[in-house]
From TrEMBL:
Annotated Sulfatase N-terminal domain residues: 49-465
Name assigned to this protein: Sulfatase-like hydrolase/transferase
Keyword Hydrolase attached: yes
GO function term, MF aspect, one: metal ion binding
Keywords attached to this entry: Calcium, Hydrolase, Metal-binding, Signal, Transferase
Secreted is among the record's keywords: no
Pfam families from the UniProt entry: Sulfatase
Signal sequence annotation: 1-19
Family stated for the protein in its record: Belongs to the sulfatase family.
Domain of life of the organism encoding this protein: Bacteria
Amino acid sequence: MKRSIFIFMLLAGSIATYAQEPYQGKVGRTFAESREWWPAPPAPPKNAPNVIWILIDDVGFGASSTFGGIIPTPTFDSLANNGLRFTNFHTTAICAPTRAALLTGRNHHSVHMGGFAHDFSSAGFPGYDGRIPASKGTIAEILKEDGYNTFAVGKYGVTPDEDSTDAGPFDRWPSGKGFEHFFGFLGSETDQYRPALVEDNAHVKPDGRHLSEQITDKAISYIDRQKKAAPDKPFFLYYAPGATHAPHQVPAEWKDLYKGQFDYGWDAFREKVFANQKKLGIIPAYAKLPERNPNIAAWNTLTPGQKKLYARFFEVYAAYLTYTDYQVSRVVNHLKEINQLDNTLIFVVIGDNGASKEGSQEGVVEYKYSPRRNKTLTRAQAEKYNEEHLEEIGTPASDANYPVGWAQAANTPFKYWKQDANSEGGTHNPLIVFYPKGIKDKGGIRNQYGHVIDLLPTTLEFIGIPFPETIKGIKQDSLQGTSLVYAFDNASAPSRHTQQYYYIFGSRAIYKDGWKAGAAHHPDYFDLNDFADSANTRPAVTRDYDKDDWELYNLNEDFNERVNLAKKYPEKLAELKQLFEDDAKKYNIYPFIDWEDVFKGRTINSRKSLLLLRPK
C-alpha cells in the first residue's frame, strides 16, 4: 500500500521534489539485506491557510470606493473593512515588470523584466531579456514544494513571445513556474470576448462569454476539485483578470450601469474623490490636490459633444471595474459557501500600475481610428469618429480606452500615470490584506511603505514557510522584498522597507527613508505605443538622459509630490542620485533603455504579436 501511494505521488508530479532528497534506505544484494525508504510527501505547516493573490490591471489609486473613489467596489470594500488597507503600497509603473517582481519577490530588472517579455520590446541584456531565470523562483514554485496546490487564472504576461506557441518550450509558461493549472492568456492585453486563451499548456477556443466570467468559473472549479480530493490540503490561487486593462469591454447588461453619472467631468471627480479620501483617513489631513496636468483640458472648456463622448468612456470603465469586483465576489462567496473563507489569506492589489494614459487625449473607440495608430488622422478626425461611434464603447466591437483626463482623475490624489516610474501616479496602488483568523484590527489602515516584491516574503512568513535554498535542485538567489507581517498588528511600527528604485523606459526614481528623487525621461508622452501602423515605425525622438530634470520630494511631509525641493536640498538630491546609480549596477538596470532604443533598427510585424489581442 505504501509503495502504491509513492508511485501515485510520482505520477502526480512530485518526482522533482523527491529527487532533491538523497536516498536514505539501504540497498543490499537481496531484499532481506536491504532497508526500504520513502521520502515524506511535502506538507505545509499545520493549519496553513489557503492563499489567494488578486491583481487587478490598470486601476488608479482613486478609482475604487475602497480607497475613496466614486466607482462602487463592494467586494473590495468588504474585504478591506474586515482586513487591512495599506495606503503606501507600490508597483513598478507597468504590467510585466510588476508581475515578475510580484511573483518572485525580487526587483524586476533582477528577474530580467525591465520591460516586457515581448520579442520586439525585450533587449539582449540581463535586465531586459524578458526571461525569468530558474534561480529566481516564484511563489507558486515555493508553495507547491511545501504541499500546496497551485492555480493561476487570467493574465500571466511574463512568457516570451517566442515560447508562446503550442510547441513551447513550456518552462516559462505558468506550468513551468510552479502552477499546476492555468487558464488565461500569456500576453499583455487581450480582447475580453475573443481572448488569446490558454489552458494549461495549450491554446483553446474561447466560448464567447466575457473573459472575467470564464476565469472565475475556472478558479472555482479548481478549488472545488482540489477540496473534493484533499479537503485539508491548502491551495494557492493567483487571480489576475485582464480587467481593467483596455480594451474596456463589459457585458451588455452592465455597460449602462452608470449612465449619466459622470456628466460632471474629471475635474469635479478629482475633488469628490479627494474629499472622500480625507474623510476615510486614506490620505493625510494636510494634503492638497495637485493642479490639473497642463496637457489636460478643463472639463468646462470642452464642447457638448466632447463632454458626452468622454463621459461615456468613463461610464463604461466604471461599469468594467464594478463588474470585475463582482467576479471577485463570486470567488469570495463560494469560499464562504464551502466553509473556506475564514481559512483563506487574501491579498488584493488594486492595479499593477497607476491609471493608464494610453487612451491619449481623445480616447479610443477602435485602434485603427486613433491618431496614435494611424498618422493620417488628426485628433479632430479621431474625435469625430469616436462621437459617431459612441454606442460601440464597451461592446465586443470596440477597443475602448478612456482619454487621459480620466487617468489623472482615477489617480487622485497623485500626479501623472501608468509608465511614469518617476511619479507616485504611476507606482502608488492600494493593497488589501484579509484573513479573518489573523487580522485583529479589522478595517485598520496601515501607512508603512510597501512594494510588490514584499508580498512573497509576507506570505511565507505569515504561513510559516522558510524561503528555500534550492528549488528543483537549483540554488536560489536571495529575496529583495521585506515582509509586511510586522505591521499587521502594529499600525505605528516604522517601515522596514526603506529603499526602493523605480525604472521604466528611462523614467526613474529612488526612494529612501521617506525621501524620493525622480526624473521623467519623456515627460510629454501619453502613449508608449505611439507609432504608425502603416510604417511600423515610431517618429524619431531623442533625449539625453543627462539632461533629464531630477525632482526631490519629502514624502513624509508631502506624500503626493507637490513641492519640488531639488534646489533647496541639492546635497540630498545628489545623495539619492548616487543611491540610484548604486542600484542600477546592483540590479541590472544598466544599460538605460527607453522605448526609442527598443525601436531603433526594428520593425513591428503586427500589434497582434505584442498583445495577442484579437485572434481569428
